[in-house]
């Protein structure tokens, strides 16, 4: 069965459509959605079968996944990650924004992802579509990037082309306009000696 193709506007996403997406996530849907950088794929973190589906689509073993979590804000972050004072100050300053912060995972994360993960990536993107989805859902969604097989273009940016490629693998593709092709900046914040693992869209002076 082909995926739904849903148009949403990043600054004022339609609450009824958000509700529809959230209901699907609770029922185990895998969705593709825009962020403030590139398009991502994800599902409700608490739905094990959906997490396994995302891993299969990506061609990786669930236990070996490197999925990050998209959060609405930093209010529930302590449920999933241990955050030092300096890391919290930095995150508060730059989020929402194009950053992924790698933090020490709490005990609940390996159980959620059925893995031995010691760390977790946290994203609070500056895009109201994924933020409103997780706000309405009441917990984060996992996120992994949509890569392109083209040797020059690393990430797919056109939601209609993304739909064509994934319509028989996922349940929903959310069109929030053209995406970027530069990923988030990944910051290792597992201790106070912050380091940039991958320079992406976000500019940070450490």
TrEMBL record:
It comes from the Bacteria. Residues 15-202 form the YrdC-like domain. Pfam families: Sua5_yciO_yrdC (PF01300). GO terms for molecular function: double-stranded RNA binding. PANTHER family: DHBP SYNTHASE RIBB-LIKE ALPHA/BETA DOMAIN-CONTAINING PROTEIN, THREONYLCARBAMOYL-AMP SYNTHASE. This is Sua5/YciO/YrdC/YwlC family protein. It comes from Spirosoma linguale (strain ATCC 33905 / DSM 74 / LMG 10896 / Claus 1). The lineage of its organism: Bacteria, Pseudomonadati, Bacteroidota, Cytophagia, Cytophagales.
